[in-house]
Amino acid sequence: MSPSAALVDDVVMRFDEQLGAGSGDLRRGINLLCGLMDRMPPVVIGSLSRMTELTLSERVALLEAMENARVGLVATMVVALKVPLSMHAYERGELLAMTGCTRSSLTEPRGDKPLAAPRTWAERGGKP
Amino acid sequence: MTAGAIPGSEAVVEGCALPRGFDDEFDVVVVGSGSGGAVVAAHLAEAGRRVLVLEEGPYFTPEAYAAFSPTESIRRMWREAGMLAAFGVGSTPIIAIAVGRCVGGSSVLTGGVCFRIPSEVHRDWERALGLHELSEQALEPAYEDVERRMQISEVPADMRSYDTRKFVAGAASLGIPFKPIRRNVVGCQGNSLCNHGCPAVRKKSVDIAYLPSAFAHGARLVSDALVDRVVVHGGRAVGVVGHLIDRRTRGRRHAFRVRAPVVVLACGTLHTPLVMLRSRIATNRDALGSHVTLHPAVRILAHFAEPVDGHDGTFQSVYSDHFASEGLTLVGVHPAPNILAGAMPGIGPSHRARIRELPAIGSFGGMVHDQGGGSVRVGPSREPILWYKMAPRDLARVRRLITVLGEIAFASGAHTVYPPVFGVTGIHSVAELRRLEHEPLDARRIECMAFHPLGSARMSVDPRAGIVGPSGESHDIRGLYVADGSVLPTSVGVNSQVPILSIATRIAWRIRDDTQPVSSVSRSWWSRIRWQIPL
To answer: For B428-467, how does the pLDDT look when each residue is reduced to its tens digit (9 = 90+)?
Structure first.
């Protein structure tokens, strides 16, 4: 199941705010990175289109190919965006629950209760 | 400029809210409020000096940052919003750098791990570099003072996360002993969010352990205040000039000037050399900004058959120095679930499928005692550019570290190991792991990070070899001191918090003993030049 458009918008907005908290150098660097990524399809998957012109499944295939590239800089381009976007996406709500986090929120301390042994998959009713 | 003294009488003034700049006089001005600056400020204020701390970053009370989510803390309190990196030269990974930019500095964001400098490093500094002031014996009183104020103690075994317990058992089966880590945390709840500011306010970071004492003894702090340069008159530091920052846009607001016969730079390894370069005061330009060490670190992810819930438990609870002779330190670490999610391989559906397995994913890390190769240079705007050329020896150590961690993971019962190598989506045997260590590999495919940049303004006896002398005072400019990680002469191979705090303590004591307050020198050179400091 794909995440909702509202969630994607929220993640993008929060990533944008994160970049806004950095320096002008950082923002220019990310702009350059995005421009380069848009032009990667001919190099990585042999398509003459720009990344923004590809279908969703083609984009996923492109990004997977880039992440698995033998050239480290190509993989780094993907990871430089994937890590912060994932941080925002999986921080709260349903997607945080998907990580199996035993707390409902990452802003509330777990309190002074002792650590308990993790519940097994069976005790959790199977994998999420 | 018509600005007067710093308005109000509060200890902490938020510079972004001031309607004008200021022009004030203190006995000591400290630039930076992290592990170096807060320590110096506290000791000198306690000694009766009038101290001002200027901090570029924002001020948040411990209760305020305790309520931040991980991404909020990264956005508000980490330098470059957590997206700072060292650019690799040659066969070198790109290394993500995590440092703080807030009152309390990186101390607010560390895992709280507290190590003294290893004895052999002390011996090297003494024998090879002649730094007798940094001998183990000479630093002992400083260590004791730091450990008392920071309330350092061992992590109890029952606070270890379950993935850590598995790793420790797996390592023991291979004959690799682990020991409990000592941390500056009292009553840890096991939230595993230390590097975002403790959500339970249990970590004794310097904003809790040092700055309140400084304030109680009359020190003041202005946040959102960026120092542009040190002012020098007749070969002596006589103050600093800078400007207040708009917290939202980071643009310049109002100029300020502070006159003080003692200036202490404690802006950290990345920014202290920049302030000195902008001030055009160091004659040893080759040494300034050079010889930076990072302690390059990696972590592996281990996939177990059943959940381990590594996010429940102390963020960092155990370490092993079993491989110290190979330059490796193994350290338990488990980041927040959303941070771990970003580290899982895959895009879209394949990424999500792995994230569903996160409860069964354990995390473990380690770092390399590197020989240096970093340099800080002025960037296009005000942030520095950090270049790092990893020595072939250190790259081999990084790859060896990945293998060691992976072997322990398999011995712990993991069925799959995700090494920090882009494009390697899972390893299922020790043999496969060992092949990965020796096969040709573009170093930039290794996911590396660093938390301890050190050494850009090294301490040395010989002025040709460093920037400051054994007292912390600049070789070139009297009255200018450096007290942060930049003065460490080499990497130390362990977390740098206590080493920086202890060396800063010793420097603070030297400043207290070697300098005088303004009131004592007002009829001498200070009274003649103090009004001549240009803006």
So the answer is: 999 999 999 999 999 999 999 999 999 999 999 999 999 9
> Is A25 at the interface with chain B, CB within 8 A?
yes
Q: Which of B387, B397, B372, B377 is nearest to B293 (CA)?
A: B372
CA distance B270 to B274: 7
Would you state the pLDDT for residue B8? Answer: 87
> CB of B378 within 8 Å of any CB in chain A?
no
Class of residue A32 by CB neighbours under 10 A (exposed 0-12, middle 13-18, buried 19+)? exposed
pLDDT digits (tens, 9 = 90+) for B314-365: 999 999 999 999 999 999 999 999 999 999 999 999 999 999 999 999 999 9
Q: Which residue has the tokens 């390399």?
A: B368
In this structure, are residues A18 and B74 in contact, taking their beta carbons and an 8 Å threshold? yes
C-alpha dihedral (B183, B184, B186, B188), degrees to nearest 10: -50
Q: In angstroms, rounded to a whole number, what is the distance separating the alpha carbons of residues B105 and B83? A: 16
Enumerate the residues of chain B whose CB falls inside 8 A of the CB of residue A17: 75
What's the whole-number average pLDDT of chain B? 94
Nearest to B46 by CA among B218, B259, B222: B218
In Å, how far is A37's CA from the nearest CA of chain B?
A: 15
Q: Which residues pair with B223 in a beta bridge?
A: B14
Residue of B nearest to A67 (CA): B423
Two tokens, residue A83? 């890590």
Angle, alpha carbons A31-A33-A36 (nearest 5°): 110
B377 touches chain A (CB under 8 A): no
Cα atoms found within 13 Å of the Cα of residue B18, Cβ hemisphere only: 27
* pTM summary value: 0.94
**How many CB atoms are closer than 10 A to CB B173?**
11
State the pLDDT confidence band at B1, using cuts at 50, 70 and 90.
very low
* pLDDT tens readout for residues B20-44: 999 999 999 999 999 999 999 999 9
Contact A100 B313 (CB under 8 A): no
Residue B264, token pair as written in the block: 């202490």
This model of the complex carries an ipTM of 0.94
Exposure class string for B251-272: b at 16+ Cβ within 10 A, else e: eebbbbbbbbbbbbbbbbbbbb
CA of residue B446 relative to chain centroid, distance? 22
CA distance, residue B160 to nearest chain A CA (Å): 8
pLDDT in tens, B261-297: 999 999 999 999 999 999 988 677 788 999 999 999 9
Give Cβ neighbours of residue B14 (< 8 Å, ≥ 6 apart).
Answer: B58, B59, B222, B223, B224
Using the 8-state DSSP alphabet, how is residue B72 labeled? Answer: H
Residue A122 confidence (pLDDT) above 50: yes
